[in-house]
Amino acid sequence: MSTSLIKLNSGYDMPQVGFGLWKVNNDTCADQVYEAIKAGYRLFDGACDYGNEVEAGQGVARAIKEGIVTRSDLFIVSKLWNSFHDGERVEPIARKQLADWGIDYFDLYIVHFPVSLTYVDPEVRYPPGWENAEGKVELGKATIQETWTAMEGLVDKGLARSIGISNFSAQLLLDLLRYARIRPATLQIEHHPYLTQERLVAFAKREGIAVTAYSSFGPLSFIELNVKHAEGAQPLFEHEAIKSLAEKYGKTPAQVLLRWATQRGIAVIPKSNNPKRLVENLDVVGFDLKEEEIEAISALDRGLRFNDPHSYDLPITIF
Questions:
Q1: pLDDT value at residue 112
Q2: Which segments of 102-186 does DSSP mark as H helices, in order?
Q3: Is residue 312 left, alpha or beta, with left meaning phi > 0 and alpha meaning psi from -120 to 50?
Q4: Which protein family is named in the record (predicted)?
Q5: Distance, CA of 60 to CA of 237 (rounded, Å)
Q6: Rounded to whole angstroms, how far apart are CA atoms 106 and 98?
Q7: Total-model pTM
């Protein structure tokens, strides 16, 4: 099954629908990646912080060994964690992550958060999380410009074909564009009907930066993380505006939510452990919602953000 492609400003094509590796368990990750490749997924969105890059790479290696895909068929994404923002730390950790995946380059490498934390040696703890070696949250001193310059060096050395950002505000993106030698190819943000971020999406698109949505199903991913306001939000799968459209088009609520995003030119990275849903989530460009239906879903916007450090009692203000 093929999906549509988004042309990045770096010249490369990125699949519009990918498989997100956040919260994929280590003991099942290799098999899930392998099965997702068999189902037709070609983009895999990983990160240092997810702690499963070795296993994800094993799934990729198995699929390549069996001739299901070649490396060039895949679009592999990873992210730079906050503890490695110092300029001299970027390349070494990127090389470690590449080794974990068992590949020579990332198709896209992203600054995970616009926050510098103090360095934690991977030999001490990996992935390091938000706390330093003493168990405290301690901000680092690296500027975004320092980090981005090092990110550009990854492109120069062929370690990343494209570079991007995640969880950036419009103001930070505007600042970054003033000094970027290589413009960010993508902006990855929390995006669902309860948090549409219309102005940020429009700004990124005007600047030729592709937008990728994470947490497309809203509160679903955050209830198990004990994010309190996620528990109080109506699940989008059960919202009448979504359920009625799913019934109308003979689709699942998940497919409607993903089509709402993809039809507006946004990339999505859902995950599922269920083989049937795995295929369904990939099949979200074969039908069209009407413009008024897209607007009705967008009208559910409540500015309700779930992935915020403060939601996890971390004293870091980003948004």
A1: 98
A2: 144-156, 170-179
A3: alpha
A4: Belongs to the aldo/keto reductase family.
A5: 31
A6: 7
A7: 0.97
d(C-alpha 28, C-alpha 56), whole Å: 9
Asked if residue 130 lies in contact with residue 311, where contact means CB atoms within 8 angstroms, the answer is: no
One-letter identity of residue 29: C
Segment 68-85, tens digit of pLDDT: 999 999 999 999 999 999
| Cα gap 222→305, rounded to integer Å | 10
The Cα 152–Cα 175 span in angstroms is 16
Q: Which residues are annotated as a binding site?
A: 112
- Residues in the chain, pLDDT under 70: 1-2
Please tell me the distance from the alpha carbon of residue 267 to that of residue 298, in angstroms, as a whole number: 16
Closest to 161 (Cα-Cα) out of 144, 145, 185: 185
10 DSSP assignment: T
Q: Which residues are catalytic?
A: 50
**Of 310, 313, 315, which Cα lies nearest the Cα of 137?**
315
Binding residues for substrate are: 112
Q: What per-residue confidence (pLDDT) applies to 228? A: 80
* 8, 276 contact by CB (below 8 A): no
CATH architecture entry for 5-303: Alpha-Beta Barrel (3.20)
The first and second tokens of residue 230, run together, are 């996620």
Residues in the chain: 319
Provide the token pair at 137: 């949250």
Quickly tell me which residue has 């895909």 as its tokens.
69
SS3 244: helix
Residue 275: per-residue pLDDT: 84
Task: For residues 41 and 73, give the distance between their C-alpha atoms in angstroms, rounded to a whole number.
Answer: 10
* CA–CA dist 201, 113 (Å, integer): 17
Amino acid code (one letter) for 110: I
Query: Tell me, what's the pLDDT at 2?
Result: 52
pLDDT per position as a tens digit, 224-239: 788 888 888 899 999 9
